[in-house]
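for the record, two folds in this file. i put them one after another cuz i was lazy. first one right below, seq on top, structure tokens after. the second one comes after a little note so u can tell where it starts
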Amino acid sequence: MSETSTTSCNSEEERGSAISRLFKSKYPQFVALISIVAIALGGLNDTIDVVRKVQDIVLSKFTDIPSHRKLNKVYVGASSKSLDEIYGAPVYIKKKATGNLIKYYQDNRYIISSIERGGAIAAYLVFPKKGFEPRTTEHSGGEDLFSHTLAYQDPVNRFSANISRTNSYYIEENAYGEFSSLYYSISGFSSFLSPTTKDNQARLKKLADDQIFGFDTTESVRRVRENLAPNFYGYSILDIGALEDAILSNTEYKLLNKQ
């Protein structure tokens, strides 16, 4: 790259940083101005809504706060319509032969998939994007869910593994967690979120093969759980098979994240 091009790039970065600093410093005045305009055009409720939306837009540029707030509003048993209110229209919808309706919602920090039954959320999975750390204190894995291997959690209830060209994954169900009397904690690993080693791929294949052929999986699942750390999580009242349908394939993930 030429010296002129390098200088130009640096200048653009400096301008971008300067604009961000200026916006941060002027944020209170900006919100006040929006409030005045909203009051002039509508009522108090409209003003509050506008200010909240502006606040979330600004905060999402510099923090994860709005993303955490949205996740805090999602829970199994809530109306499936609540997801539209929180995230807007789904970015992708699948209907399975079982009748399950799976909807995917996009946030700047993650993708959330929801399985709907009878107008309520029966299960949902959260696929964090790089750098985002969800709050998982209610989960059986606790607040350090993503800092340890799957074996760190309580003994697994049910599990499933898959190896294919479109996606390799492992998913499990645990009967513990803050709301274990209402639904199960779900965690797992998917190759589209982060790559893994050849050894772990081999362990996943061994477990998947053992399941297919009806072999004893005690040792193969132990090895997978001791070596893989989860990169997605969720909560559910459904069986593992239904949840597997809600795991994005590599192609689907690329589609939802194309620029």
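(here's the note) second protein begins now
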Amino acid sequence: MNAVEVDLDAVERAISGYQSVIEDLLALHQDIRFLTQIRPPGDDAPSRVYAHDANERGLTLLEANTALSDTIRARIDKLTAVVAQYRGSEHGNALILGGKG
């Protein structure tokens, strides 16, 4: 069995970086919402088509932003679980070996 060494500081920095990205995506989410509320500039067919298409594109961006946020949150959850499990293993190993835990 091969030993695996985990740099917990690096993992925690990655988690922090991902959390920063989530904050940026949340701020961007508010800006994107605006792009789903475009009103036709006029009362003619081209204006209505433009507004409809612009709102659809805004909705697509909103959905992509949400999907990316969900993916990054899932990664944060996994990395947080790895850190917790690794710390738990270190503590258990220290107790077994008579070290301080």
